């Protein structure tokens, strides 16, 4: 599972989604999905723009967390 820390990062900087949309040109819907951790996919240019705007690295924005339930290995 991938955890997105956008809400925490914006809170720490006292920024709103509308601020990020205005300053980066990233679609508001995309930012809202990242903020609420409902995004199923993200374009690399969006991640690049967010890291540049927030002056952070990708590990500050996204974190891999091992899933609670491990998937069984595929059967041959």
TrEMBL record:
> Which Gene Ontology terms cover its molecular function?
DNA binding
Q: Supply the Pfam families for this chain.
A: HTH_26
Where do the HTH cro/C1-type domain residues begin and end?
5-66
Gene3D superfamilies given for it?
Answer: lambda repressor-like DNA-binding domains
Question: Could you tell me what this protein is called?
Answer: HTH cro/C1-type domain-containing protein
Task: List the source organism.
Answer: Zoogloea ramigera
- Please name the gene that encodes this protein: yopB
